[in-house]
Write a structure and sequence with these properties.
By secondary structure, this protein is of the alpha+beta class. The chain is globular and about 45 Å long. It has a single domain, classed as Tgt2/MlaC (Nuclear Transport Factor 2, Chain: A, Roll), CATH 3.10.450. Helix content is 47%, strand content 18%.
């Protein structure tokens, strides 16, 4: 079951016949989301292995689908410019870990859910918006939409929207308090602590 309360903090092939409803369009941004959705479904189906095992399984999918450096810079905010390259690298690594830990925690078991992807991709300046839904076996679907941008020759996620709420904006607000008084080391510690907490649940 997906924990909807924590989807805000987000952010492979399926084991059975592919439950992802693939879009008819050949937009490469959709292909990225299809790949992520399949990895999430595989993680959900192996949920009994535990959060740490799901994290290890999902980490490569996160690194493929998300533009973590861009997301980290935005989440940290103005303080980013004052950090050394080493501090920036440590923050990016911690943010990668947190993103994968969030997914491992939230997509913890499989109860017949499907992912659907809307083939009508919206273009917003240099970005694209890919709309998707998590459809339970019974009950209402949940919107999970992705803002995407080209990075390294492919389309990658730079923000996740649960409904109309931006994950990255929420994280920026959360990180701001730690970014000023403790600097990069304190913020890195806080992000890793969040990931540790999620992987214990």
């Amino acid at each position: 079951m997906i924990d909807k309360r924590l989807l805000l903090l987000l952010s492979a092939a399926a084991l059975a016949a592919p439950p992802v409803v693939h879009a008819q369009a050949s937009d490469p941004a959709i292909a990225t989301i299809d790949g992520l959705d399949n990895a999430l479904l595989e993680s959900m189906k192996t949920g009994k292995a535990g959060a740490e095992a799901r994290y290890v399984r999902l980490l490569p999918a996160v690194e493929r689908a998300f533009d973590i450096p861009t997301m980290t810079r935005f989440a940290v905010g103005d303080a980013w410019k004052g950090y050394s390259p080493g501090d920036q690298a440590a923050l990016t690594k911690a943010f990668t870990r947190l993103t994968a830990a969030n997914l491992a925690h939230n997509f913890a078991s499989f109860e017949g859910e499907q992912f659907t992807v809307n083939p009508a991709v919206q273009t917003r300046g240099p970005d694209k918006l890919v709309r998707s839904q998590i459809v339970p076996k019974s009950g209402e679907a949940t919107e999970l939409n992705y803002r995407m941008r080209q990075a390294g020759g492919s389309w990658k996620v730079i923000d996740v929207y649960f409904g109309s709420i931006s994950q990255l904006t929420a994280q920026r607000s959360d990180f701001a308090a730690a970014a000023v008084p403790g600097g990069a080391p304190e913020l890195t510690k806080k992000i890793n602590a969040k990931a540790d907490e999620l992987l214990k649940k």
